[in-house]
Amino acid sequence: EMQEEEQVRKITCCAPINIAIIKYWGKLCEVENLPLNSSFSITLNYHDLCTTTTVTTAPSYVKDQVYVNDLWQDINENPRLKVCFEEMRRLARKQAISENAAAKELMSCSKKIHVQSVNNFPTKAGLASSASGYAALTFALGQLLGVKGDLSGVARRGSGSACRSMCGGFVEWLKSEESKNSTAKQFVDETHWPELRVFILVVSSKQKSFGSTVGMQRSVETSALLKHRIENIVPHRIKVLKQAVLEKDFCLFAEICMKESNQLHAICMDTFPPLRYLNNVSEKIMNFVYSYNERCGSTRVAYTFDAGPNAFLFTLAPFAEDLANQIYQVFPPSKDCTDTFFKTTEEFSFPNGKIVPDVTDCGLIEYVICTKPGPGPQIV
Amino acid sequence: EMQEEEQVRKITCCAPINIAIIKYWGKLCEVENLPLNSSFSITLNYHDLCTTTTVTTAPSYVKDQVYVNDLWQDINENPRLKVCFEEMRRLARKQAISENAAAKELMSCSKKIHVQSVNNFPTKAGLASSASGYAALTFALGQLLGVKGDLSGVARRGSGSACRSMCGGFVEWLKSEESKNSTAKQFVDETHWPELRVFILVVSSKQKSFGSTVGMQRSVETSALLKHRIENIVPHRIKVLKQAVLEKDFCLFAEICMKESNQLHAICMDTFPPLRYLNNVSEKIMNFVYSYNERCGSTRVAYTFDAGPNAFLFTLAPFAEDLANQIYQVFPPSKDCTDTFFKTTEEFSFPNGKIVPDVTDCGLIEYVICTKPGPGPQIV
């Protein structure tokens, strides 16, 4: 009985999402998820948005099973899921062999695994659930199988941007023609710039955005500007961005951040037929950011958009409450959502209470999540 | 009395607008309107859209006077207007001197001129009235002063794209660092491709679009992609477009036409802060074009947009009536405009009569002008 109990193992981990400042757009290799350019991101606090994944082994298990938000996933029909299992087992075996492990331990690399994964945020809202999802899965399998070392290359095989969620804080994902070298590296950790705040504005949109994998592919095939961006613009921008982060130069950070977002969507427009990820509300948010900064006489907020209409706004702690109020004024919630509009652990006070201002456009934004940089995956 | 009569001279000319297929975006010199890249356009039939300009000299005139659509223009406050007068007089004097003209003729170069200019289309609708306006003025002054030779360089000084309206048919405007070499040349005349049809969809928009002069300037200063476009993409596209026009290859023409429009707006998005000339309706029109072609199983229609939300659609004569019907179905006029919706000299029959279809979005397009390539400026 004792032996039986020991053989049941269960580990729960959670992993954060990340938001790219220097954008990943274009693959060198579809299967390996090798990017055509390096990218740079900020990992967000997993208390606010994360995927929580539980992995279990038990003697009774006869095959691998994966459930995401209680929905069964067919591993054999999902090459990205499959490759994560295969890669993790390969690394476990390789490690066991190099450590001259006993036969029993080698055997354990092949034990069947059950996975339960849930997101604490809407999965289909375009909030990068594949990044946190594959980071959580990879990290959890690594814990279960006792695999040491950098696993970001495995997470990358599941979903490109997932590799960046394997590190906390400020992260660079390196481009390389070699799979083993295209990994994520922490630049500075999440405590480096404690004043930084992130507002995620979830834009109400029934329209499902065009998948980024297919979108990238079309850009690589048809955009006359993408190659130039990759070769001549991105390397310089990463260098300048790193300097801005190191020096906590918000003004420079904001400029690169917005220019990169704009250029991603310029490349999408230059794709044939063009890809349109931003909608009317996204444009209104961009205009709001420029006019807010202009009114303040300095750069206090920056936006970035990925392949969808939701906005990620950056600001600094002293300006966060005022920004929250301005968002509430300019993009008021629809009447039935005022209490759940701001999802935040910070204490913002709204001078006008919860009164919906006299604006005809209510409910353009569904809700706002207030967060900040956070650490990488954790055992919970 | 006879002498007095002879001294009153009056000439009326009209000049067409043109639509760029290869876009002009970026100036080498603001004052001279020298473009950073060559462009290629189609001059549209002046019967459908034109500026009509009457120039008069009389002994009683004591100063130059310009009226546009009955509004007085202060020449001294308008450097572009001023430069056209000065340049035309300079050319007239130069020609008179080289021809050893009599003193009387030399004097006539300095006679005061009155100008009356009217557009037969809405001036503020973003339909390039400055192109037809400066072409008409330059051409009319040339007729009045008897100036021979290519005047497109003078029209260019008034408004860059006006130089292309000095030629009929298919026109290239050459880039050059020398003012005298940056002129418009006819590639083939308006009879070359008689099947080509142009639909101008005037998008209802209260929003005044951001001026293209200031927009270009901002792109030149801030877009990281513009230089690459100018140096590496445009020259090749002009070459391929000329081939497509020569061979009347509509499919290739359409592809370059749409890609160029997309790239102009990509550059605008890459400008900091970004320039947004397309609106929701423009996007709907783009989607309409792609899905119409897809439904037809071949490329039957192409779009291009300048620095504004209005669409210019190209098609061929056999498909024009069906396209007109589809536009009527997908973008129905508001109820009070059904009779004036299509401005056309062609006879389109609408199988559904003038019944407004069951679509909630009526009046997104104010009206449609159907036209085709046409000749350059004319005396009327």
Structural descriptors:
380 residues; alpha+beta; Ribosomal Protein S5, domain 2; Alpha-Beta Plaits; 2 domains; six-stranded mixed sheet; 10 helices; globular; lipid biosynthesis (chains A, B)
The greatest interface between two protein chains, and residues involved on each side, is:
A-B, 25 and 25 residues
Beta-strand content bin of chain A: 15-25%
State the separation between the terminal residues of chain A, measured CA to CA: 27 Å
Number of helices of chain A: 10
Helix/strand/pairing category of chain A: alpha+beta
| Strand order across the largest sheet of chain A | 8-7-9-6-1-17
What percentage of residues of chain A falls in helices of 4 or more residues? 25-40%
> How many domains, in number, for the residues of chain A?
2
Q: What is the CA-atom radius of gyration of chain A, in angstroms?
A: 22 Å
How many E-type strands of chain A? 17
What name does the CATH topology of the largest domain in chain A carry?
Ribosomal Protein S5, domain 2
**Which of globular, elongated, flat, extended, rod-shaped describes the shape of chain A?**
globular
CATH class of the largest domain in chain A: Alpha Beta
How would you describe this protein?
Two copies of one chain form a homodimer. In chain A, 37% of the residues lie in helices and 21% in strands. Chain A has a six-stranded mixed sheet with strand order 8-7-9-6-1-17. A five-stranded mixed sheet of chain A has the order 13-14-12-16-15. Chain A is globular. The longest helix of chain A has 21 residues. Chain A has two domains: 188 residues, Ribosomal Protein S5, domain 2; 176 residues, GHMP kinase, C-terminal domain (Alpha-Beta Plaits, 2-Layer Sandwich), CATH 3.30.70.890. In chain A, a hairpin with a 4-residue loop joins strand 3 and strand 4. In chain A, helix 2 packs parallel to helix 4, helix 2 packs antiparallel against helix 5 and helix 7 packs antiparallel against helix 8. The mean pLDDT of chain A is 92. Chain A contains ten helices and 17 strands. The first copy, chain A, has 380 residues and is an alpha+beta fold.
